Hints:
The chain has helices at residues 19-28, 46-52, 69-79, 99-107, 128-145, 161-166, 176-186, 211-226, and strands at 6-12, 32-39, 58-62, 84-87, 113-117, 123-124, 157-160, 191-195, 198-199. The model is unreliable at 230-234 (pLDDT under 50). A seven-stranded mixed β-sheet has the order 3-2-1-4-7-5-8. Strands 6-9 form a two-stranded parallel sheet. It has a single domain, classed as Spore Coat Polysaccharide Biosynthesis Protein SpsA, Chain A. Helix 7 runs parallel beside helix 8 (211-226). The protein is of the alpha/beta class.
Amino acid sequence: MAKIKLTVIVPAYNEENTIQEILQKLSREKDVYEVIVVDDASKDKTVKISKAVKSKKINVFSHKVNQGKGKAIQTGLSKATGNYVLIQDADLEYDPSEISGLLEPVKNGRAEIVFGSRFLGARTNMFYWHFLGNKFLNFVINVFFNTILSDMETCYKLIPTSVMKELNLRENDFRIEPEITCKLLLKEKKILEVPITYVGRTYQEGKKITWFDGVRALQTISRIRFAVPESSNV
């Protein structure tokens, strides 16, 4: 296939403690073509620190008001110039050094879309109830779409930019993760999963997702699966 130009979208909200390190790691990855940071109206020094990282790969954009992770991803997608896109949370739960492992099956022609699965690789500090919630949501998606995904909520989704834009993403919060997965499956896209490591952080360290996000994710999965398609868009 043609050379991969990877755009990494980094949605960020109050991540002053980790944003510098994550951007430095991304800028050192040879497979990363550009990094688009979308600050979602942080109240700390996230924007200032992001702009201070010296790399021609990095571009920083800001929302004037907080709109959610999903909206930040949509903004980043509108700015992407690479032919592939990957989402990278601004914390340190996912390791950019593993991006090359996601790209390899694409480069070898074995896959078009690759998910990094936390449940196939090593992991630490994953809350038990988050573990159960993820398992349940994966079970629902597997039943609804007749698939065998292990981690549909993963942040590491490697997708052609053109395909990502065709999904017509609408969710403005954490529900964008199941929305992306469900719409790919509705389009009968094949998803290859590869193992990744995961180092979870605590709520004291800034973790934002809660059990309520799981409930809302279930609503999104059901709505997309059973809704009547809107003309040519899912």
